Amino acid sequence: MARDATNRADLRPAGIRRAEFIALVASLMALNALAIDVVLPAYPEIASAFSLDSDADAGQVLVTYILGFGLGQLLFGPITDRFGRRGPLMAGVAIYIAAALLSPLMPSFALLLGLRFLQGIGAAATRVIAVAIVRDTMKGRAMASLMSLVMMVFMVVPILAPMAGEGILRLTSWQGIFYAMAVLCAVVAVWFSLRLPETLPAERRRPLTMRSTIEAVRLIARTRVALFYGLATGFIYSALFAFLTLAQPLFVGVYGYEDSFTFAFAGVAALMGATSLANSRLVTRLGARRLSHTALTGFLLVASALGILSLGGNPPFWVFFGAVCLVMPLFGLIGANMNAIAMEPVGEVAGSASAILGFLQSVLAGLLGAGVAALFGGEVWVFAAGLAAASLLSLLTVGLAERGRLFRAPASAA
């Protein structure tokens, strides 16, 4: 490039515009988010096709996918730091596509679960490498701004994906959902191969050895900001996981809004997307720390207020829904900013760091979110308490990362 790139915040490859770059990275992240939730409406058909005892047993297709996704991140992190971004990503999407195409042909539920596990491993490449590409090409507030737009897609897709799955089911069967995933992944893979060059030059690649992997883990463990912000992000995402799991039981089971559930869900998704879009503009002026710390505090206050109002019995729907519309959009000011802060000091091992932090966040969010869902018995206060606990743990962990100095950027980032 004609100008010295070392002091620039935006190091995108020449020839690709910012809007296309954002759309491409967001599409990679969306492939994983889509595979998680687009299958949800097909549980009854899958249970019937394989003679399962109940529709809930079909939920194992989600559990096995997430297990493969978590473990796959640890696999692709070191690989992408050694061989670059393009090759490992193409391998990952090939696994994803093959598993999606073969899943409808399986004669037994066990074989279907095995392919979902493999699909999760393939999807791990999209998450790890998307974040690594952003870290390769962005610094500081520019990285946080771009990540906010990418994470907008990552947060909204899981909410809208069930509606897409329902639409596919109306046209075809549960097998059609897997074929649709394969087609979409192939389109994104071709787009990526044609438009985005390698972002990790050969001189920055690391050897693929156990020692180099251990060194990456040690670097994150020694880097206070990376470790604690990674943990804090996992804590707060457990609240999002709990919401996705409990939204239908709350809206339909508790309040009886079956007919309008889809529209209410979409409304919350739109608000989350709007705050992510706003964050992409605000972060360059206010900074990732000030925005995320303020949003975390607001999240804790709103969730606590809903919990208090629910102690005497479930509150009126307008109180519950109003609180949800206030608290859930705050993810748009939290997730992308805290991920960017965590990745900033470990750019030298961006692939491995993305994998390790992604695995850590997935495990924390999945276990804690599932714990909240397991405790839920129709009481709104359980849901609210879970959100409050998640935000409190996240805020306390951020405090440890910043040594108690919240709402301000470090002197070196000014």
From TrEMBL:
One of its GO terms (cellular component) is plasma membrane. It is found in: Cell inner membrane; Cell membrane. NCBIfam families: efflux_Bcr_CflA (TIGR00710). Residues 21-403 form the Major facilitator superfamily (MFS) profile domain. The chain crosses the membrane at residues 21-43, 58-77, 89-111, 117-134, 146-165, 177-196, 226-248, 260-279, 291-311, 317-337, 349-374, 380-401. Keywords: Cell inner membrane, Cell membrane, Membrane, Transmembrane, Transmembrane helix, Transport. One of its GO terms (biological process) is xenobiotic detoxification by transmembrane export across the plasma membrane. It is a multi-pass membrane protein. This is Bcr/CflA family efflux transporter. It comes from the Bacteria. InterPro entries: Efflux_drug-R_Bcr/CmlA, MFS, MFS_dom, MFS_trans_sf. SUPFAM superfamilies: MFS general substrate transporter. One of its GO terms (molecular function) is xenobiotic transmembrane transporter activity. CDD domains: MFS_MdfA_MDR_like (cd17320). PANTHER family: MAJOR FACILITATOR SUPERFAMILY, POLYAMINE TRANSPORTER 2-RELATED. Its main location: membrane. Belongs to the major facilitator superfamily. Bcr/CmlA family. PROSITE patterns: MFS.
